Every structure is written in structure tokens, then in C-alpha cells.
Amino acid sequence: MQSSAREHARKDWDTYFMDIAYMVSTRSRCHRRHVGAVLVQGKKLLGTAYNGAPMGVEDCEEAGCMISEEYELVTNEQGEQQIVKKQRCIRTIHAEQNLLLFTDRIDREGSVVYVTDQPCWTCANMLANSGISEIVFHRPYSKDDQKVRHLMEQVGIIFRSLDMYEPPAHAAMEIKQ
Fold it and tell me: Which of 96, 134, 153, 166 is catalytic?
């Protein structure tokens, strides 16, 4: 009886690894978005990373965000074109980029990346060439959603969202757009 109760409370692997990604994100000092990423091969955790300034450089908490504005022409589902304004903090290296910098290509071959947030276009491009086979994310990033999904389809990387996932209460942050 006690064994089945423990088994029932046991988290599935997606929840387990996404919880770890959220815990890793708590190391970020960016005011706009805390992002964590983990690299998993089978059920083995191979690496973790979060978004932040390069080592030895003032971070967003110390020096403030360094905002860059970009404009992009996008076509909506009705075929209409519109200009979309994007703001990005360029002081930080994204969690996915740090994960790629601090893990070996041989470990990434066929691995899964769990990331708290859907990758942006730049990170998606880097992940597409990294050797991974799957990306699992929780929070959407609508600014790049369509083109990132299309890219993942083109390169054959499984790309899925954990829509019903609930992050640990002490690890989640409100996102500033």
C-alpha cells in the first residue's frame, strides 16, 4: 500500500527535468526573464545553464538591461503583412546558448533539451545545428513561434510544449515583455 502511494506521487520524466530547468533559472539575474535549460541523454542529466551576462561582466541586476529594438515584417495566418516591434536584452547570453557553450557535441548527439521558455530564433538556429533530437519547453515565446516551429520541422527536431505543466512556485517568475 505504501509503495503504490509513493509510486503515484512520483513525477514523470518531463516534469522532473522541467522542474530542474526552472530551478536552474533561479540563478539568472535578468529582470525581464529567468530562463533555465538542461541537457538530457536518456534519463541522465548532462548539463544545466541559465541566461546571464558573460562571466566577469556586470549583469542586468548591477547595470540594468541593455535593450535592443528590432522590427520584423511578418505575415499572419490571413496572409496580411505587419511590422512587429521586438525588444530584446542583449546584455545576457541566453540559457540555450550557455548550454551549448558548456556541453560537448558528443554528449548532445540525440539528446533532449528542456528549457523553461520556447527558444528565440537565434537559439533555435543554434540548437538546430547542435546534434539534439528534441526540445521540450513550457512558456511560449510568441514573437518567434511560427518561424521556429517551421525550422524545427525542417531539421527534424521534435519540438513540444508542456502546456499542462506547473512550475515549482518558488522558481517561477512573472515575465516582462
Answer: 96
Calpha distance 59→126 (Å, rounded): 23
Write the CB contacts of 118 (distance below 8 Å, at least 6 apart in sequence): 137, 139, 140, 141, 144, 145, 148, 161
Higher per-residue pLDDT: 173 or 68 = 68
DSSP-derived secondary structure letter, 103: S
Amino acid at 74: V
Q: Which residues are annotated as a binding site for Zn(2+)?
A: 94, 120, 123
For residue 3, pLDDT beyond 60: no
**Amino acid at residue number 119:** P
Contacts of 66 by beta carbon, 8 Å cutoff, 6+ apart:
60, 89, 90, 91
Rounded to whole angstroms, the Cα distance separating 15 from 37 reads 13
10 Å Cβ neighbour count for 140?
12
Beta strands at 112-117 and 134-139: parallel, antiparallel or unpaired? parallel
Which amino acids are annotated as binding site, given as ranges? Answer: 94, 120, 123
Residue 68: its pLDDT value, please?
87
Determine whether 96 is an active site residue: yes
What is the average pLDDT score of the chain? 90
Q: Which amino acid is at 30?
A: C
| Global model pTM greater than 0.90 | no
